[in-house]
Amino acid sequence: MTDNVETNVFSARSRLRDLRVAHRDLDITIHELSVNPNSDVVRLKRLKKQKLRLKDMIVRIESELIPNLNA
Hints:
83% helix
């Protein structure tokens, strides 16, 4: 049982790291596009929505990794 919990925590931390990298990469891309006056506004909007989805996923995983203090 303990091995399964440790594997899940490791998996969640790995996923969290990947999501943070993707979020940072999107942030850089959005910044570069927003500086360019000729950038595609629709693409920029889609990237911003994707960045928000990633942030929501990051927050959800972070909250799952916090131990339940009532247990």
